[in-house]
Amino acid sequence: MQAINLRSFRQKVKRHKRSFKGFLTRLENNPPRKLDDLAIRVDKEVWHETDCLSCANCCKTMSPTFNTRDLKRISAHLNMTVKEFKEKWLYYDKKDKDWMNTQQPCQFLDLDTNMCSIYEVRPDDCAGFPHLTKKKMVDYMHVHRQNIEYCPATYKMVEKMKHLLATAKRLQ
Q1: N or C: which end of the chain has fewer CB within 10 A?
Q2: CA-CA-CA-CA torsion for 77, 81, 87, 92, nearest 10 degrees?
Q3: Chain centroid to CA 157: how far?
Q4: Side-chain half-sphere exposure of 40, counting CA atoms within 13 A
Q5: Phi, psi torsion values for 107, nearest 5 degrees
């Protein structure tokens, strides 16, 4: 597993974002058989090659959504009321009806170590990120299209799937 160079990652995204988003749209509109099985296989490969602690780009550039369970769990962990927690660190996005961080990077990210100070009670959104192997991958294509810009693991997953599907197509 090698450390992630965010500068290099951003350059790759700039070069390939359009083709990757197009690929994901085509997959969504015409999913190949056993797409979910392929995603599980690729997921294992991606996590053998990706070191999140060398990156933490998601925590630096995105905000999780906080559900009611998250709010109760995290505020209790911090010995705060839910109201105090919201007032100190969150805002309510009226359009999406979500509680979100007021700042980036995330207030719980230690920028020296890229570790989360509330990892054991982190929001469900963080625990599931980057959502590579949801049961029906087709239902998460919109999420993958967004995350390729922020998450090297998602980028790597799309890169590998694109290569594997192109190879399989050539062999037919």
Answers
A1: C
A2: 80
A3: 11
A4: 7
A5: -60, -20
61-112 pLDDT, tens per residue? 999 999 999 999 999 999 999 999 999 999 999 999 999 999 999 999 999 9
CB atoms under 10 Å from CB of 42, counted, come to 20
Query: For the whole prediction, is pTM greater than 0.85?
Result: yes
Q: Which pair of structure tokens corresponds to residue 68?
A: 């009611």
> Residue 1: how many CB atoms within 10 A of its CB?
10
How far apart are alpha carbons 172 and 163 in whole angstroms? 15
Q: Is residue 1 part of a domain?
A: no
Which residues lie across from 50 on neighbouring strands? 2
* 38 and 19 within one domain: yes
3-state class of 101 per DSSP?
strand
